[in-house]
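Handover notes (outgoing to incoming on-call)

Open items:
1. TLP18.3/Psb32/MOLO-1 phosphatase superfamily protein: sequence verified, structure written out, both below. Nothing else pending on this one.
2. Nothing else urgent.
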Amino acid sequence: MGIARITKHLIVHRWQVRKLFPPPVLERIGRAITACEASHRGQIRFVVEGALDGAPLFRGQSARERALDVFSQLRIWDTEHNNGVLIYLLLADRDVEIIADRGINARVGSGGWEQICRAMEAQFRQNRFEEGVIFGIRAIGKHLAQHFPGDGEDANELPDAPVVL
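TLP18.3/Psb32/MOLO-1 phosphatase superfamily protein structure tokens:
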């Protein structure tokens, strides 16, 4: 665990998350998830966290490990077709992680998710956070529509609203 990472996490505050993701942006992201889910039976959640606190930070928890914790806490794995997908952004590290349940992950694989993450991070480096998140939602939606096409029923198993931690 480097001092530079600890420092970044200690100075990234909730106000910075609110600055980059104010309520209107969060609403648009939620609407993008709702619109995307109309074309498939998958479930997408977006979570943004400003920084790690306390023990996880000093223990050196990675964004990937934190994303796995959040995936579990939000019960994204608890969908009928095992096709829930989490987009997790750890703002202090500018690191995006996509965690997908086994039903969709077996069909897309880590390389597909990694490609989406890198494209989102490229947008974030240009301070295009909303655009980057919506790009990620749509890219994930294409995979879900291919492997879990909609059947006309609106079985929204998970909330579409973004989560700010």
